[in-house]
């Protein structure tokens, strides 16, 4: 969430395959929400139970579709990507004063995340003011509290943006451990995050952080340069295997399975490491294709803006009884229409909101580093 938001500007090179992975993950979220909206009973009846307990063929087919287009899996991929990209960015500043880097990084990160979110919420609020029957309406104070990420009161997926903000001190702490203790320090940060899965106080009871933190730490491990020689030894087909495990590892386990959740996060980290450092194969070629790259470029705005567009479509389709009877088919159709309608909006947002916000972040970073850093300092990429 965006892990998908970030671009890797590190000197060791940017992985276009990760952009493609981010793009497909964002598209999956659109279809995932579109399917589940038509029949909310699918959540407890189909989504959460394992495949083998499906009561009929339609439920089994819907389960497989939700596995392939699983929005929660996509979110964990975003977080792993975020951890990897942010760690690579921070590693560039190992020679800078740590406090200065933390200041520059945090400010640039905030400037990167908030403007696209606020623009989306304003659009969402304005569309509600039109008075379309069935379209949600909000009070302006909800725009403010959700825009500041104090409470997720109108835009549910922005909870992942909240996690991206709240994880900043954890990422910086892990980076400092890596800086002063080497790889063992980063491993300790990962172990800490794993322990937080069942003891939320380790994540300071921050919203959802106990469940998400290990994915960010796994991403930081995935970008570890010391592991690069090991990753390079694996055949290119390994990344297809990692993708298959990532998609299907929770299929035959209940949603509450901790083992399946951890397996998903680790397989995502292995996949990201392979796309970063491993041998280039057919999967990397697919993710570097034109369609995947186009999706990756607008993935952050697509992830945000598909919500008001979906609700616009649902304002009309909710009155159609067939969408409840054929929730899967209706969801795939509505998801495709939403993707096509959101694409130009996301392109505009990426061009006129995301890019300036990135520039503002770099300017802030450059200002902090120029004033408080060493003379050789350059802006911290986020």
Ordered list of secondary-structure elements with their pairings:
Layout: H1 16-38, H2 41-47, H3 57-68, H4 71-91, H5 98-129, H6 140-147, H7 158-166, H8 168-181, H9 183-196, H10 209-222, H11 228-233, H12 237-248, H13 258-277, H14 282-287, H15 290-297, H16 299-317, H17 322-325, H18 327-372
Total of helices: 18
C-alpha end-to-end distance: 14 Å
Roughly what fraction of the amino acids lie in strands?
under 5%
Based on helices, strands and strand pairing, what is the structural class? Answer: mainly alpha
Task: List SSEs in N-to-C order.
Answer: HHHHHHHHHHHHHHHHHH
How many β-strand runs? 0
| Poorly predicted spans | 1-12
State the helicity in percent bands: over 70%
Shape: globular
Tell me, rounded to a whole number, the average pLDDT. 94
* Main sheet: strands, sense, barrel: none
Gyration radius, rounded: 21 Å
General description of the model:
Helices cover 72% and strands 0% of the residues. It has 382 residues and is mainly alpha-helical. The two termini are 14 Å apart. The model is unreliable at 1-12 (pLDDT under 50).
């Amino acid at each position: 969430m965006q892990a998908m938001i970030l671009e890797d500007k590190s000197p060791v090179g940017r992985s276009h395959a990760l952009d493609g992975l981010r793009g497909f993950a964002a598209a999956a979220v659109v279809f995932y929400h579109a399917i589940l909206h038509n029949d909310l009973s699918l959540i407890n009846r189909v989504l959460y139970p394992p495949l083998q307990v499906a009561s009929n063929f339609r439920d089994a087919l819907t389960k497989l579709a939700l596995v392939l287009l699983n929005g929660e899996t996509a979110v964990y991929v975003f977080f792993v990507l975020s951890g990897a990209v942010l760690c690579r960015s921070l590693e560039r500043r190992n020679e800078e004063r740590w406090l200065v880097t933390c200041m520059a990084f945090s400010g640039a990160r905030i400037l990167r995340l908030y403007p696209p979110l606020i623009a989306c919420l304003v659009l969402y609020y304005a569309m509600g003011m039109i008075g379309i029957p069935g379209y949600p309406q909000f009070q302006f104070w909800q725009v403010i509290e959700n825009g500041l990420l104090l409470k997720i009161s109108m835009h549910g997926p922005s909870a992942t943006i909240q996690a991206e903000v709240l994880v900043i001190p954890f990422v910086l702490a892990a980076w400092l451990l890596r800086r002063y203790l080497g790889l063992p320090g980063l491993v300790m940060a990962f172990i800490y995050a794993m322990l937080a899965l069942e003891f939320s106080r380790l994540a300071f009871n921050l919203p959802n952080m106990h469940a998400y933190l290990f994915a960010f730490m796994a991403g930081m491990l995935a970008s570890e340069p010391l592991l690069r020689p090991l990753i390079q030894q694996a055949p290119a087909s390994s990344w297809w295997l990692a993708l298959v495990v990532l998609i299907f590892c929770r299929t035959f386990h209940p949603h509450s399975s901790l083992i399946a959740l951890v397996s998903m996060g680790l397989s995502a980290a292995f996949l990201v490491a392979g796309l970063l450092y491993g041998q280039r194969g057919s999967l990397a070629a697919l993710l570097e294709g034109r369609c995947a790259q186009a999706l990756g470029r607008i993935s952050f705005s697509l992830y945000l803006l598909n919500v008001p567009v979906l609700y616009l479509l649902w304002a009309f389709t909710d009155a159609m009884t067939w969408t409840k009877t054929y929730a899967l088919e209706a969801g795939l159709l509505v998801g495709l229409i939403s993707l096509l309608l959101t694409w130009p909006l996301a392109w505009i947002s990426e061009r006129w909101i995301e890019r300036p916000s990135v520039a503002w972040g770099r300017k802030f970073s450059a200002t902090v580093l120029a004033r408080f850093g060493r003379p050789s300092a350059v802006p911290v990429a986020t």
